[in-house]
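Spend some time on the protein that follows and explain the fold to me:
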Amino acid sequence: MAAIIQLRFPATEATLGGTIAAVPGVRMEVEKFASAADESKRPLIWIQTDDYGAVDGALSADPTVASHAVVGEAEGRRLYELAWTDPADVTFCALERFGGHLRYASLTDGQWAVELLFPTRERLSRMYEAITERGLPITVDSIHELDEATADRPLTENQRRTLETALATGYYDIPRETTLSDLAEEMDVSHQALSERLRRAHKQLVTTALNGHPMNGPTDLETDRPHR
């Protein structure tokens, strides 16, 4: 049975560690990842920071990066296309080496949060053993089988847990019973990390809702308008 693992590891001890250490507070999210088996395709990574000059300088000096280029920009973030110095030694490639498929990877607060899908539990176990033998300290947040429920569910476990906490504490009440800062403190994460996690969760829920319910009826404005 296929299995999904969600894990975290210190960013400075992995690929791009030099860049991340040189630019405090930098945030990253993988848009498209390229495996070591196909060097013709290059990874695309969103980067957000207050100092892109520092990012460019750090990428140029990063021993894991052969080249980099900005290929897009949106919502205050820049999309970088990277080429690895040694694709076979890239941390993400190592995670996929035993048949895993990278579903999500995001950097906040100095840690990579990653979700991978493996065709079998055996391959997942082999990946974990190989990575820990390399000395990379991994924290496993969850492991679960890919069943009908998880296949249809658009949220990660962290996103679901965040939404449940936000709902229970009155974040979605009108007026709100708690603030984003209070919620971040309760969940022991930074304000920025929680804001990004909620934004991604909301985007996934809205996308799923719109894909499942074509907008061919009256608008919300029309249906919510009070009768006079």
The longest helix spans residues 191-212.
